[in-house]
Design brief:
The protein is about 50% helix and about 20% strand. With about 150 residues, the chain is α+β, with helices and mostly antiparallel strands.
């Protein structure tokens, strides 16, 4: 039989076809056709399925769904736990990085001396750099106050 004849299982879009179930080969879409011309253009190819085949595919699809459902549940659980674990590790890693890489780092300050500032009477005594910075800030504020 020639392609596109009413008796062949292969049909093209816009061709007359018998009523039944057809699979559009371009995307695997199942089309229920009531009769007349098939939808789509002449480039679209369809494969006619017998009703018996369609009826047999229903229980097989259900069986596959039932068999794979527990594995899908386990996969979703593993994904959720993995996301939670990675989020916790990221938080812990950032905290560790902040503690190890930049201990008490303050932007704008230069740490050229390795020792800690001395404490006097339980209160930390200001270093020379801190005193100079405070003096420069005070002088800047005074100059700014005279202008305004």
């Amino acid at each position: 039989m020639a392609p596109g004849h009413l008796g062949t299982p292969w049909q093209r879009g816009e061709q007359p076809a018998r009523p039944g179930f057809y699979i559009k080969l371009a995307n695997g879409e199942l089309v229920r056709h009531a009769g007349g011309a098939l939808p789509g253009s002449r480039r679209d190819r369809y494969l006619r399925l017998h009703t018996i085949v369609v009826m047999a595919l229903g229980p097989i699809a259900g069986l596959v769904y039932i068999l794979l459902l527990p594995f899908l549940g386990l996969a979703m659980l593993a994904y959720a736990l993995g996301q939670r674990t990675l989020r916790g590790l990221r938080t812990a890693g950032l905290a560790l990085l902040a503690a190890v890489a930049f201990p008490a780092w303050l932007p704008g300050r230069s740490y050229l001396v390795r020792h800690q500032p001395r404490r006097q009477g339980g209160v930390r005594r200001a270093t020379k750099v801190e005193r100079d910075l405070a003096d420069a800030t005070r002088a800047f504020k005074e100059k700014r106050g005279r202008r305004g």
